[in-house]
Design a protein that fits this description.
Chain lengths: 283, 298
């Protein structure tokens, strides 16, 4: 009797575990089969036009790239700075607990709420309107906890002897952080940043009402400089619009393929980095 | 020497400011949600708003009852948890107790990738695969029924299934690590007393990891409540009682689908919907913080 029960449970365990793998294979397979036909050089380098009937996502690619760059340029230093404070300066107490609570709360807030906040604060109160900047500012708040947490983990693995050694040789704390800590924690910082980029690429709800949905390519270099102040839809936003209001499923699946390739690449990259990092530590 | 001291102080102050930004962000988000979400409440009246079921914001005599919307969010979340958590827990059991190195890493990678897939892709697959399948089921069940409004598969049931899949990675990874953290001496003691491996897992290991698993479930609840885009693509677009084959709107999809064109009071009401979602999420967060604190004290 026990044996039968055990076997049933074991079967259920294997079945459920297989489900995750099957769902993943199903999603990837379906997206590639439906979408690979839409993806070609022209699709990636031109812009959709109702006039010529051309389909392309170059504008959305540029917008996504710009949002990643603007967000990370601001979020990475702040996130790393916060981690350094929490790990190197702060003494346990009310202020630190408050910061940690705030970071946890921030990572629990759904992206649609960030979107609403970004729209009324950065968009309306600060006057950036629907623009890549509004979108980026909103995303900064979303990825900060991720970068801070990963940097903190990395800082914790730096042995205290490094710190003491540097300070013992007469280095100031800032000098020690700059020349010893940050370089030693670099792999963790990079992993956190890549994860943050993955989050930005996949984000949609927070961008819909902040960055808007324009899909034209900026005109030349001056246009690229003005682009952050203008509306721009990322890949995910365009995919959402293509699949819903525009009813253009070729484009939607084409973008889905591009998104999946980016997500897979980011996953592999972080794995390789983590492995390299931990292997180096064991030595 | 003095210059060095100034640099040191400046660095410290800058780092403090960086750390304080998280606090500032949470405070200003909370402030803005309340500031933008409350005006409509006083205009419409709390009880009309919360306990009326009719949603007709653009009618000549507009009505802003959001009972069904709140119910849809809550029931969708609860059902997704009821379906998703057992699957996630059994997968976690596999990963921590039964899996060999090879098979374990395959499942683990799959779970990690599921977590990384953007929600719009879940929505797209839901639209193209799940909705037609549910529609077949709907036609079978409601065949000759003239009272039923056919949804083409864009309904509560589709939303629940998509949510159940989307919470899997969160619940699996948190549960796996808490199962792994259970002391091996407990397992050995149970096995030595003659229990089988499966009995040990279900009678000893899972109860011992209970609080960690519950943390995972609470995280899953937060995820399901806050999911917007995927649900918006599969759940249909009408405000209805959350029955399995009804087209529904949740707190999140209500904002996503109407914020783009809403004006005046309608727009304020959508902010109130956001405020209600925010309050739910804060409750979930508070439970999480309490659970984490308890865990840390242990």
């Amino acid at each position: 009797m026990t044996k039968v029960k055990d076997n049933i449970l074991k079967f259920l365990i294997y079945l459920c575990s297989a489900l995750s793998v099957l769902v993943l294979i199903g999603i990837i397979g379906f997206v590639f089969v439906k979408g690979i036909g839409s993806v070609n050089w022209n699709f990636l380098t031109s812009v959709t036009s109702a006039f010529t009937g051309n389909k392309g996502i170059a504008g959305n690619l540029v917008n996504t790239l710009l949002i990643i760059i603007i967000t990370m340029i601001i979020a990475a230093p702040i996130g790393i700075g916060a981690a350094i404070y929490l790990n190197e300066y702060a003494k346990p107490g009310k202020f630190v607990t408050l910061i940690e609570y705030a970071a946890e709360t921030l990572s629990g807030i759904p992206s649609i709420i960030f979107g609403l906040f970004g729209m009324v604060f950065f968009g309306e109160a600060l006057g950036f309107g629907y623009s890549l900047l509004t979108g980026s500012f909103t995303l900064i708040l979303m990825v900060l906890p991720l970068i801070t947490r990963n940097t903190q983990e990395a800082l914790k693995t730096v042995p205290d002897s490094y710190r003491n050694g540097a300070v013992g040789l007469g280095a100031g704390k800032w000098h020690m952080i700059r020349t010893i800590l940050i370089p030693s924690a670099m792999p963790g910082i990079i992993t956190g940043s890549i994860l943050a980029i993955g989050r930005i690429v996949g984000e949609s709800a927070a961008l819909l009402f902040t960055a808007g949905s324009a899909k034209l390519l900026p005109a030349g270099f001056p246009g690229l400089l003005e682009k952050p102040f203008q509306s721009g839809g990322t890949l995910t936003i365009q995919m959402y619009l293509s699949a819903t209001s525009e009813g253009d499923f070729d484009t939607a699946f084409g973008i889905a393929v591009v998104l999946l390739v980016i997500v897979l690449a980011i996953n592999v990259l972080t794995k390789v980095l983590t492995r390299k990092y931990t292997a180096g530590k064991e030595r | 020497m003095k210059r060095k001291a100034i640099i040191e102080k400046t660095a410290e102050v800058i780092f403090i400011i960086c750390a304080a930004i998280a606090i500032l962000a949470v405070c200003s988000i909370t402030f803005y949600m309340i500031f933008k979400g409350t005006p409509a409440l006083s205009e419409i009246g709390v009880s009309d708003f919360l306990f009326k079921t009719k949603w007709a914001p653009t009618a000549s005599d507009p009505s802003y009852g959001i009972t069904y919307i709140i119910l849809s969010s809550l029931i969708g979340t609860v059902m997704a948890i009821l379906i998703g958590v057992p699957i996630a827990l059994l997968t976690a059991v596999f990963l921590s107790e039964l899996a060999g190195k090879r098979l374990g890493s395959v499942v683990r990678s799959a779970v990690e990738l599921l977590a990384a897939i953007p929600s719009v892709i879940y929505g797209l697959i839901g639209m193209m695969v799940l909705n037609p399948a549910i529609y077949v089921l709907e036609k079978k069940i409601y065949g000759g029924d003239t009272d039923h409004t056919f949804t083409g598969g864009s309904c509560m049931l589709s939303a629940i299934i998509v949510l159940a899949i989307m919470i899997l990675p969160t619940v699996i990874s948190v549960s796996t690590s808490s199962l792994k953290a259970v002391n091996d001496s407990l397992r050995s003691a149970s096995l030595a007393l003659g229990a089988t491996k499966i009995q040990t897992i279900f009678k000893v290991v899972i109860p011992a990891a209970k609080s960690g698993i519950l943390t995972g479930v609470v995280l899953g609840i937060g995820r399901a409540l806050g999911e917007a885009m995927a649900i918006n693509m599969v759940a249909g677009g009408a405000v209805n009682l959350p029955l399995p084959f009804n087209s529904v709107r949740t707190l999140t999809t209500q904002i996503v689908s109407e914020m783009g064109y809403a004006q005046g009071l309608h727009r304020q009401v959508l902010f109130t919907v956001g405020l209600i979602l925010y309050i739910f999420i804060m409750i979930v967060n508070y439970i999480l913080l309490r659970a984490r604190k308890k865990e840390a004290l242990k």
